[in-house]
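Sample intake sheet
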Amino acid sequence: MSLPIKTSRALQLATVAMLVTCLAQMLYWLYDEATFSHRELNQKLVVFEVHLEVAKELQASGTEEQALLTRFPELHVMDGKLAINQRAVDALRDARHRRLFRYGSEGTFLVLVLAGGIATLTYTLRQPAELMRRQANFIAAVSHEFKTPIASLKLSCETLLLRELDHESQQRIAGRMLESTDRLESMVTNILQAGRMDAGQLDLQPIEQPLISPLRAVLEKAQLRADGTGATFTHDVPEELTVYCDPMALCMALDNVLSNAFKSISIKGQGTVRLEASSVDGEALIEITDDGVGFEQHEARKLFEKFYRPGDELRRQSEGSGLGLYIVQTLMEASGGRVQARSAGPGLGATFSLWLPKHSGVRT
């Protein structure tokens, strides 16, 4: 565990302890005020009783009634006799209740502020630790992603240099080298694209066009992936369906989703990937479905977070850096669309749905 994470947790515990202490002091303050005001009320009622006795003695000695009422305003004459005025008692009790209400409302407000502070600080202090964990996963993933194709390229080059090969073997090795370079290129492209997005340098040029136009190259690449892995790839894209977006952004987003789908079924050894497009409620809907490893539905939103990859990097079976779906979501949102993932559970495949406006001026 790194020092920054330890420091964050220590600071979090110290902050929570401080806020809990403040909360305890505040509750004691409210209790003390309630006790004090109750004691003060009882003392004033006792004073009223004393004043009543004094007034009666003065009345017996000949003091006029009006003078007594002026001197002791909490008294009045009822049925010809001096008595404590109930309005004066009610006024004391009302004053106590108002005071307690004021203290209680102010105390409640401060408690809510403290609770909000605890929640905010807890969330804020957890973010660096979570980000560091994901960055560590990213570094582990990128190291693996680069190491594997580089090792494959090195082995292929050594084979070509050390052995005389027939044409068929040369073609096979060349294909393997091309596959490794494609994998490296995809990784570098994703890293550079994510960097441009974070720097706010995403420049899209949307146009209205038939969806099939920019999709042809993506479909051809997906078919090559399927042929190379023994998977089955099918697609259904209506010729008349239009979409308003940047062609390069759409291709990159779909290529990343399809790449994830083929990686998912490659873990199981075989499977099917299907791409379907349709018009739904005035939008273009593109759905990519696979019968691969799937995921827990509660992880659906996290899949689109930067660097997020479920599971342990050291035991991971699939390729990837945790940037592909982050790029997909960013491109979709920048294009006025959205993306959603769903799965029935691990081992039950997954479906990624991408919505985009069909015409200019229609933003979702």
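Comment: The mean pLDDT is 81. DSSP finds seven helices and nine strands in the chain.
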